[in-house]
Amino acid sequence: MSMLVVGLSHRSAPVPVLERAAVTGDDLVKLLHEVHDSAHVSEAMIVSTCNRVEVYAVVDKFHGGVSAMSELLSRYSGVPLDDLSPHLYVHYEDRAVQHVFTVACGLESMVVGEGQILGQIRQAFRLAQTEDTIGRCLHEVVQRALRVGKRAHAQTGIDQAGASLVTLGLTVAAEHLGPLTGKRALVVGAGSMSALSVATLARSGVAEITIVNRTHARAVRLAEAADVPARALELADLGSALAAADLVVSCTGATGLVITADFAREHLAQGPAFFLDLALPHDVDPAVAELPGVALAGLDDLRRSAETRGVVGAAAIEAVRRIVTEEVASFLGAARAAAVAPTVVALRSKAAEVVDRELARLTGRLPELDDKVQGEIAQTVRRVVDKLLHAPTVRVKEFAASAGGDAYATALRELFDLDPKAPEAVTRADLETSPERSEP
């Protein structure tokens, strides 16, 4: 079984395609189960954010897995497969492990180095656990990826060097509006991105923040936690809140537009206004940018701005890449060594059985041997066998840590005529007796 990743992100697809491909709520759970129930798939997890939709799976056939996952992404997004395929990327086996480690470190994020992706991967992992679609292979890869991401942030300056998506967006807003000190801000939505927006706005010196959300209680909780004067309004009050705002940050989970061009035209005051649309699909109609005195920045604009500004230093990026390279090599080496271990155990078990049979034959043929002599003979024979097996078993473990190392285990099985099912039986026994590992 091998790990496979099929997905698309802001690097491979334009925002309109990402908007259609975004999967949330019940659809995400349904897609997760359909992937898991596909032929050739034994484990599945889906990372779905505003910037990426990636299906992680353990498969027994590469082409069958890619086809099934691509077709499901096409069906759930409504994008014909011929139109979606050019934007999909595929990573397999070693490259799949490298990809998830790289993503966890923030190197694939729109704003390089942002730390939110760790929480998003953790959320995807917990959903897969809850829905019972994840097994030992993905469990180990994802847990290691989370640790690698934490290490990258702890040991390099990537999170300090790279602004968060919200911080970059507010920097762009200040370029249009002037300093945000004293400005009035409206935040539409009350999720994690909105909470981050409120905290970042407070640090920027805005005079007041209004929070509008479909669930009023969540808006109230967010307003109460703000470090500046903040109030929570019902979604029905969005028009009046819009009229009083200089800056609007919107990030809801809505599937359609929250602020249309006509709605904005009706309620906007005459002063300059800036819209920061952090949602996918879009919350704000792109036509809003055509209104007099109004500017709008969406995710595509922020991606281009991040690339232009080079917000993350080259030294920090290179340091994280070295960490990823090191961690991938360590993980794959350990995984390959673990994969050959059942074969080594099976070999030693077969040798022990042969020794036991021959000793039993000797006892039957020479019953006059006393216990002390029998014990000495048994100890000598076992010592000889152990010495003969020592070198090949040590070397096969060393070789297994390199690429293609499974071929050495196959050769060992062939040379010693091992039962092909013996390593599988050892592995099953290990799985049944191993304690459940917890998330860091």
Biggest sheet overview: 6 strands, parallel
The fraction of residues assigned to DSSP E strands is 5-15%
The radius of gyration is: 29 Å
For the secondary structure, the number of strands is 10
Unreliable segments of 5+ consecutive residues: 425-440
Helicity range of the residues? 55-70%
Throw out a few tags for this protein:
440 residues, alpha/beta, 6-stranded parallel sheet, 4-stranded antiparallel sheet, 10 strands, 57% helix, elongated, disordered C terminus
Task: Briefly say what this structure is.
With 440 residues, the chain is of the alpha/beta class. It has helices at 15-21, 25-36, 62-77, 81-84, 94-104, 116-130, 136-155, 158-161, 165-177, 192-204, 216-224, 238-243, 261-267, 299-309, 314-365, 371-400, 406-415, 422-433, and strands at 2-9, 41-48, 52-59, 89-92, 184-188, 208-213, 230-234, 247-250, 273-277, 294-297. 38% of the residues are buried.
Descriptive notes:
Helices cover 57% and strands 13% of the residues. It has helices at 15-21, 25-36, 62-77, 81-84, 94-104, 116-130, 136-155, 158-161, 165-177, 192-204, 216-224, 238-243, 261-267, 299-309, 314-365, 371-400, 406-415, 422-433, and strands at residues 2-9, 41-48, 52-59, 89-92, 184-188, 208-213, 230-234, 247-250, 273-277, 294-297. The strands form 2 sheets. The chain has a 6-stranded parallel sheet. A 4-stranded antiparallel sheet has the order 2-3-1-4. Strand 5 (184-188), helix 10 (192-204) and strand 6 (208-213) form a beta-alpha-beta unit.
